[in-house]
Each structure stands twice: as C-alpha cells, then as structure tokens.
C-alpha cells in the first residue's frame, strides 16, 4: 500500500491544471467521496497495527498535498477568489468598524481635562528603576518592586507598572508651571481574570505651580467626574497611601449603575472607587530638581478600563483585548 500511495503522491505533484475543468477533474479523481484518496482511507482500516503509523502519515501527506494543489488551482483560476471562495475585492458589508472603547474613553478623559488647560504628554513603556520607582519615593523593599508584580527586563529595567513614571520624566525637563495628562499602557505580573490583566491603560494627571492646594485637586476631580458620568455624580475622597503623594487619597464616585442606592457593582455601598490622587510629595519634587519651598502640586492616576467598565456597564476586563467584533461593534462614536 505504501508504494501505491507514493505513486499517487507523485501523480498529484505532477498534475497541472490549465482550466477550471482540469481542476474539477483533479478534484473528482483524488478528493471527491469516491476519489482515490477516499478509497485509500477505506483500505487503511485493514492495515495491520504495526504499519498503521507509517502508512497513516504517508496517507495524510497525500491528502494535504492534494488539497493544497486544489487550492492552488482555484487561486490561479481567478485571482480575486480565495480558497474559501470569498471575493476580497467586493465592497464591505454595512459595518464600517468603530473605535475601540478604550480609545473612546481615553479621548473623553483627555478632552475633559483639556478644557481645564491640561496638555498631553507620553513616556516610554520600557522604563528604568529611577523613573518607575526610586524618583517616586518607593522604599527599597516596597512590594511593587517585587518580581511577582513587575515584569523585569533586566537589572534596572522593567515594563512600567504605572504612568506615574511619566510625571518624573516631564518634571525633570520642564520648569513649572506644569499641567499635563499622561495616557499610556502599563504592565503588571497578574493572573488574567475578569477583574485583572497583565496589561491595561492608565491616565495620569499632574499640576505643579505656586500655591496649588488640595482644594484645587478636589474641584478638578469633581469637574471631571460630573463631565464623565453626569452632573448628578457625587465624589468622596478617602485617605490612602501612595509613596509619591502626601497626603494621598482614593476617590469614589456615587455608583453609576444604581445612583447610590446599592447594587452588585458597588457591593451595596453606593460608591465605586475610580482613582488614586494626592499632593505631590516634596521629595518627588526634589528628585526632579523642582524646589518644594516654592512649588506644590497635585497628581492623580486612573485606569481607563475601569472608567470604561463603569461608563458602559462592561463586566469583564478580558473583553477589551479579545478583539471580538460582536463586542467592539457596539461602540459607535463620532470621534
Ligand atoms: N500610580 C498609582 C497606581 O498605579 C495611581 C496613582 C495614585 C497615581 C495616586 C497618582 C497618584 O498620580 O497621585 O496605582
């Protein structure tokens, strides 16, 4: 049987089809239900167990090469046709594609802060220890520096774990006043689930000038929350800790789903956390050669996925990176 298969492989390889009829002849002879290959597969059932592996491999080789040959004939027959028969030059159906929800919300956020005079800056995704940790006042033994949380690429180099690194990059080279938004992708060594991912997006905000106060921070964030989620939205600031801000806070907004009455999204508290913020720690200003006796500032950072989930009621982070057209096509936008 081996010999017969080998002869047919040679036959198949030597076959050339000049017309559609030739191609169809080829298909009937080898690949149809009553064709030679099908016959061989029937016969294969009777092959003794010791020979099955060898003969089986050869038979599969024959089948694949015949199929490839047929695909090739079809392709040659009509350049616009793929092997599946679809015509790639046809006009596309109604759906023209849409922006990714993360891009829509990123733009919404930047537009809102743009109206308050914030401009946009970006920084590298591969970052050194100084910009990601040390200049931001992270203690030597801070857990975020741990291999478990950070993707290290070398001794002093890692995928940035937050966009706060961009604050340092810009402050190092710009004299205040500085009023900037810093969007970008960040990476953390997390197990992927509905609520966590190894990469996601953040937007960082920074305002450094003379006499910047916590009241300025609060009013700026209230404006943002009401522009983003509607003017009935309330905010609350809870004391928290970040190495690079002092004092630090986390901000909650009244739940966008139940308007504060209590539901699964806000775990029946009426509030959902959306960002971290605080007054820039004087030692961070010093690290960036800005005099903390003259200048003060506030900073904040938020996850774009989180804002998008709340705005559109998306309940699984993984949807943002799966590229499922059914999910993505729901986000129509003018931008
Ligand atoms: N970098 C923080 C994080 O990734 C978020 C953050 C908190 C940014 C407070 C800030 C801030 O600028 O002031 O969790």
Note down, in words, how this protein is organized.
- The protein is of the alpha+beta class and 335 residues long.
- The chain has eleven helices and nine strands.
- It has helices at 2-14, 20-31, 36-44, 49-77, 101-114, 129-132, 164-173, 214-229, 282-287, 304-312, 325-328, and strands at residues 119-120, 126-128, 157-159, 178-187, 199-209, 235-242, 245-254, 271-280, 296-303.
- The strands form two sheets. It has a seven-stranded mixed β-sheet with strand order 1-4-5-9-8-7-6, sandwiched between helices. Strands 2-3 form a two-stranded antiparallel ribbon.
- Strand 6 (235-242) and strand 7 (245-254) form a beta hairpin.
- Bound molecules: 3,4-dihydroxyphenylalanine (DAH).
Q: What are the key terms here?
A:
two-stranded antiparallel ribbon; 335 residues; 11 helices; 7-stranded mixed beta sheet; alpha+beta
Give the gist of this structure.
This protein has helices at 2-14, 20-31, 36-44, 49-77, 101-114, 129-132, 164-173, 214-229, 282-287, 304-312, 325-328, and strands at 119-120, 126-128, 157-159, 178-187, 199-209, 235-242, 245-254, 271-280, 296-303. With 335 residues, the protein is of the alpha+beta class. The relative contact order is 0.11.
Global mean pLDDT: 92
Query: What fraction of the residues are assigned to beta strands by DSSP?
Result: 15-25%
For this entry, what is the oligomeric state of its chains?
A: single chain
Low-confidence stretches: none
Number of separate strands = 9
**Order of strands in the sheet with the most strands?**
1-4-5-9-8-7-6
User: Which distinct ligands sit in these coordinates?
Assistant: 3,4-dihydroxyphenylalanine
Structural class: alpha+beta
- Counting DSSP H or I runs of 4 or more residues, the number of helices is 11
Can you give the helix content as a percent range?
25-40%
The Rg value, from CA coordinates, equals 31 Å
What is the H/E order? Answer: HHHHHEEHEHEEHEEEHEHH
**Apparent shape:** elongated
């Amino acid at each position: 049987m081996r010999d017969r298969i080998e002869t047919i492989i040679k036959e198949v390889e030597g076959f050339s089809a000049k017309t559609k009829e030739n191609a169809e002849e080829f298909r009937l002879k080898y690949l149809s239900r009553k064709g030679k290959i099908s016959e061989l597969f029937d016969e294969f059932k009777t092959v003794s167990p010791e020979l099955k592996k060898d003969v089986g491999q050869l038979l599969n080789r024959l089948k694949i090469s015949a199929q490839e040959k047929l695909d090739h004939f079809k392709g040659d027959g009509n350049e616009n046709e793929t092997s599946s028969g679809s015509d790639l030059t046809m006009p596309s159906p109604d759906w023209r594609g849409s922006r990714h929800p993360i891009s829509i919300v990123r733009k919404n956020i930047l537009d809102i802060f743009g109206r308050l005079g914030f401009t946009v800056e970006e920084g590298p995704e591969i970052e050194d220890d100084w910009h990601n940790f040390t200049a931001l006042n992270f203690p030597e033994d801070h857990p975020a520096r741990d291999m478990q949380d950070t993707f290290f690429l070398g001794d002093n180099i890692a995928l940035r774990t937050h966009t706060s690194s961009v604050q340092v990059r810009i402050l190092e080279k710009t004299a205040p006043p500085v009023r900037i938004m810093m969007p970008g992708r960040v990476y953390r060594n997390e197990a992927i689930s509905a609520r966590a991912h190894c990469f996601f997006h953040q937007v960082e905000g920074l305002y450094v000038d003379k006499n910047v106060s916590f009241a300025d921070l609060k009013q700026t964030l209230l404006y943002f929350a009401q522009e983003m989620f509607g003017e009935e939205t309330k905010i609350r600031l809870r004391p928290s800790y970040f190495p690079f801000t002092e004092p630090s806070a986390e901000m909650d907004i009244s739940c966008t789903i139940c308007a504060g009455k209590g539901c699964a999204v806000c775990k029946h508290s009426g509030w959902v956390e959306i960002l971290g913020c605080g007054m820039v720690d004087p030692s961070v200003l010093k690290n960036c050669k800005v005099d903390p006796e003259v200048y003060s500032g506030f900073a904040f950072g938020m996850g774009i996925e989180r804002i998008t989930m709340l705005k559109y009621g998306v309940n699984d982070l993984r949807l943002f990176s799966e590229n499922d057209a059914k999910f993505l096509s729901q986000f129509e936008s003018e931008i």
